[in-house]
Amino acid sequence: MSWIDNAVIYQIYPRSFADGTGDGIGDIAGIRSRLPYLAELGIDAIWLSPWYTSPMADAGYDVANYRDIDPLFGTLAEATSFIADAHAAGIRVIVDIVPNHCSSQHPDFLAALAAGPGSPERELFHFYDEPVNDWQSHFGGSAWTQVPDGQWYLHMFDPGQPDWNWEHPHVRADFEATLKFWLDRGVDGFRIDVANHLIKDLHAEGGWVDQEGVHEIYRSWRKILSGYAHEPVFVGELWSEPSALAKYLRPDELNTAFNFPFLIASWEASALREVIDVTLAVPATPTWVLSNHDVVRDVTRYGRTATEHIWIMPPTGWESDLTLGTRRARAAALLLLGLPGCAYIYQGEELGLPEVEDLPRELLQDPRWERSGHTDYGRDGCRVPLPWSGTAPPFGFSSGEPWLPQPASWASLTAEAQAADPTSMLSLYRAALRHRPSGPFAWLASTPDVLSFTRGDITCLVNFGSTPVELPPHQSVLLSSTPLVDGHLPTDTSIWLHTP
Ligand code: GLC
């Protein structure tokens, strides 16, 4: 047993969580001031998106110094005392590590540029006299960029994010030192960014993903964790096929990986049942995730006709019914928190925030917007600063102007307003975290539109069908995502029943 086996982990996107310094960008001081909120919510751990020194070409996923904090967010001393404060509040801290690429301002990349073609410095990256394949960057356009002396380097994301050459021993040693650096400061684990990309076969189609050699890296990383008594863990960001994914979860590799098939499954009993079965068949701690800083917020996604679409796209055909989306997101929350394993909440999910789809184009910062030639609106709409209190922007987020504007309609969605309303999304999350079921999982027989399972002495039901269903015999209703109708479970509703 490990603490992660049934942990609820809250993702903090630092620039949008809370601003303690008044510059409109969230920071460590802000996060610290909201620790009581997180403790009251009842989470076990937080995962922080990158807080490292960065020119912010990709909101901090372009790291210039893996062992220091960007001045936008604070200082290393603040980070260290924040970790201690979180621990004192009973909250563990997982940090992001970005091993596939660094920033083009990282000293090693600057040294490689200065040293010129053929130098040992260039061997830390993928430099060639010409592109050796036709790979496209995930943000659009070629994955190769030419430098002034004529050579080209590989970047699977933005040109500001050169890919490391993981065949080089210096790269391996340097990341091992970074892991130890943060473990020595008390972190409880790492979320590994694009964990399936590190090793590449530049001459194979799709040779940037799931190469066999990557597993050896994680085996050596896992040995590092074993040297620490406080049970630190890994969670991999792996958009891999289930068969490839399972390999990363072998006992001597990563403890967990995000369950993206669950996130992208459409809002249908059969689709979700299948994902749950596939997940539980893997002999590793299951995880459940509905959203993060890269995908459309679940309230908006579940309000669309095609609920599996996770990206925000150009205007037509993607309208969302937010009343429907919110109802389903509430039901999804009780499903997620009812399942056995580790559950993730992305900041604002507990407030039922929708995607902001009408941000002024000139304010968009996600590199996908520029790289796609303005065809991909990018991910800024799920990164809008949180509404904390008050009736008008900036809703207690900052004393300055938030880096992205918050919709005026969020007045009813502030943490303050929702804390006072027992029917709010926040109250639902708080109650669900307080009463989260434990015990063995077993499916119960049900009609095709209903998911029904037990966890110890709690029965969970989710009705995806269009007609209300009868409840099984029970002692009491623990929680229901929307009110019952004549004692029946209505459409798009989840319930937890006490059934001793
Ligand atoms: C991951 C991150 C994403 C980032 C990308 C490149 O997918 O979640 O935000 O842009 O990696 O680092």
Structural summary, described in words:
The protein is an alpha/beta fold. It has three domains: about 5-100 and about 260-435, TIM Barrel, CATH 3.20.20; about 105-155, Oligo-1,6-glucosidase, domain 2; about 440-500, Golgi alpha-mannosidase II (Immunoglobulin-like, Sandwich). The protein is built from 14 helices and 18 strands. The chain has helices at about 30-35, 35-40, 75-90, 105-115, 170-185, 215-225, 240-250, 260-265, 270-280, 300, 320-340, 365-370, 415-420, 425-435, and strands at about 10, 45-50, 50-55, 65-70, 90-95, 125-130, 145, 150-155, 190, 235, 255, 285-290, 340-345, 440-445, 450-455, 460-465, 475-480, 495-500. Helix 6 links the parallel strand 9 and strand 10. Helix 5 runs parallel beside helix 6 and helix 11 runs parallel beside helix 14 (about 425-435). Bound molecules: alpha-D-glucopyranose. Alpha-D-glucopyranose binds next to loops.
Entry summary:
The protein has 500 residues and is an alpha/beta fold. It has 14 helices and 18 strands.
Number of helices: 14
Bound molecules: alpha-D-glucopyranose
Biggest beta sheet summary = 8 strands, parallel
Estimated radius of gyration: 23 Å
N→C terminal distance:
25 Å
**Average of pLDDT:** 96
CATH topology of the largest domain: TIM Barrel
The CATH class designation of the largest domain is: Alpha Beta
The assigned structural class equals: alpha/beta
Contiguous runs where pLDDT drops below 50 for at least 5 residues:
none
Q: How much helix, percentage-wise, in residues?
A: 25-40%
Strand order of the largest sheet: 11-10-9-5-2-1-13-12
CATH architecture of the largest domain: Alpha-Beta Barrel
